[in-house]
Design goal:
This protein is α+β, with helices and mostly antiparallel strands. Helix content is about 15%, strand content about 45%. The relative contact order is 0.15.
Amino acid sequence: MYKRVRLKDTVEVPPEHLADVTPQRVKELLQDKLEGRLDEDAGSVVSVVEVHDIGQGSVLPSRPGVYYEAEFDALTFDPEMQEVVDGSVVEVVEFGAFVGIGPVDGLLHVSQISDEYLAYDGENQQLASTESNRTLGVGDDVRVRIVTKSIDERDPRDSKIGLTAKQPGLGKHEWLESDRRRRENEGATAGDA
């Protein structure tokens, strides 16, 4: 879920910018420092939006810059447990598909995609059903639910988000549309009887 949150952080203003300690300069330095980073409480910082307050500067021995504590608003993405999100398949591997949801990827394990058996087709970068003609490949849009979340602040690439698409209303968008049309046709046929 995307959120606008109020945060505080310390930013180092290098000596060459000390004559220009403005909210815009501090915002640029905060953007360089924080955007794309994960915070366990706030989530992934997508963008520093607005700087509200810049505190008094502090000098540290043997450091050339001046450190300012700043209060600012940031746009963050924090995936919540049980949240339903739309994403795009970014990679397919033998054990499932990685789905881009916002600025992070989650794993949709092969056992959580469908009740049908899905075989890995490495040549075409897809998972294919042996019972129907359904496939899941790179670039496919899916609706999934977040079922596990483990954020690693030290190394965001080691963060793990587990997804499922097995409940009604979840899965590849194309499959959902096909199922909706089938239900409508069955309803129309039942109404004619």
